[in-house]
Amino acid sequence: MDETSVLSGTHQRQRSDIWLRLARFLRLFPWSGGLIEQVFRLWQPRFTVGVVGVLLDQTGERVFLVEHVFHTHKPWGLPGGWIDRREEPARTAEREFLEETGLRVRAIRPLIVRLGDRRRGHMDLVYLMAFENSEQSVQLSRELVSYRWTPCDALPPLADFHLAGIRAAREAVGIMSGTAQRQAPTPTT
């Protein structure tokens, strides 16, 4: 056995002894595990998470868009907002739709999860949405100016991830591939 392998074996044994001692300590004092986790989290990256939802009409040819008060460069976009602490992303999409438009929708599935373009430490999520029931009317919040069902081939300028989300939604329901079978939600307005 050469000196290098002996030294690495000793180092490995010392390292595993440290972790073994830590494991024994945590078993004796289980409450300390949460404290150690909190200290460890101080050095972990933090993210803000934005969630938007794509709601297509029954044909899949039109998408529900809203005009935002605070989005000055590209005011038209998908309904959405920032995730609340300890909130499930799908629940965020549903809550934001209800708060912004008064529409009760459900998140079908995530379409896009990606790091945001402009903000460091930001993540964007896009969900495919469907109506919970067909008899609903739109009631806009104060942060929105207007809404409209827009043909997907005549979209106004939108944020890149909103465009990508609309494309992904149409692919998910078979519109872009040319298939006629769909399971899209039915709008009432």
How would you characterize the overall build of this protein?
There is one protein chain. The chain has 189 residues and is of the alpha+beta class. Strands 4-1-6-5 form a 4-stranded mixed sheet. The chain has 4 helices and 7 strands; from the N terminus they run H-H-E-E-E-E-H-E-E-E-H. The protein has helices at residues 3-28, 31-41, 89-101, 160-172, and strands at residues 48-54, 62-68, 76-77, 80-82, 105-115, 122-131, 144-151. The chain has 2 domains: 3-41; 48-172, Nucleoside Triphosphate Pyrophosphohydrolase, CATH 3.90.79. The model is unreliable at 4-8 and 177-189 (pLDDT under 50). The radius of gyration is 24 Å and the shape is elongated. It is 33% helix and 25% strand.
Computed over alpha carbons, the radius of gyration is 24 Å
Strand content is 25-35%
Q: Which segments are poorly predicted (pLDDT under 50) over 5 or more consecutive residues? A: 4-8, 177-189
Give the overall form.
elongated
- Under CATH at level 1, the class of the largest domain stands as Alpha Beta
Structural class given helices, strands, pairing?
alpha+beta
Number of strands: 7
CATH topology of the largest domain: Nucleoside Triphosphate Pyrophosphohydrolase
Number of domains: 2
